[in-house]
Design goal:
Largest sheet: 3 strands, antiparallel
Radius of gyration: 13 Å
Shape: globular
Strand order of the largest sheet: 2-1-3
Order of helices and strands: EEHEHH
Distance between the termini: 31 Å
Number of strands: 3
């Protein structure tokens, strides 16, 4: 199984979209273990949304959609509903 996820940093009002086959370890990496990369600048992250897929291909397709303009709108709507952030 593969998980597509949306992370949210309330401190910086940032979102991050990715996919993984091991969400607990990937989340730990984003928040604590990684020493380089985009997400280390915006810690701490919370998991705002997840979707499960049976194949890597499906997960990549959904991740790519979520990174599109329409997909980011979808992600921001989730953030607004769950966390009350109004910035788009």
């Amino acid at each position: 199984m593969f998980t597509v996820y949306i992370l949210y940093s309330a401190k910086f009002n940032q979102i991050y979209i990715g996919y993984t086959s091991d969400l607990p370890n990937r989340f730990l990496s984003h928040n604590e273990l990684a020493t380089k990369g985009h997400t280390i600048k915006y810690r701490p992250w919370v998991i705002a949304h997840t979707e499960e897929f049976e194949t890597k291909t499906e997960a990549i397709k959904r991740e790519n959609y979520l990174k599109s303009t329409l997909g980011r709108k979808f992600a921001r709507n989730i953030i607004r509903e769950k966390f009350g952030s109004s910035d788009g």
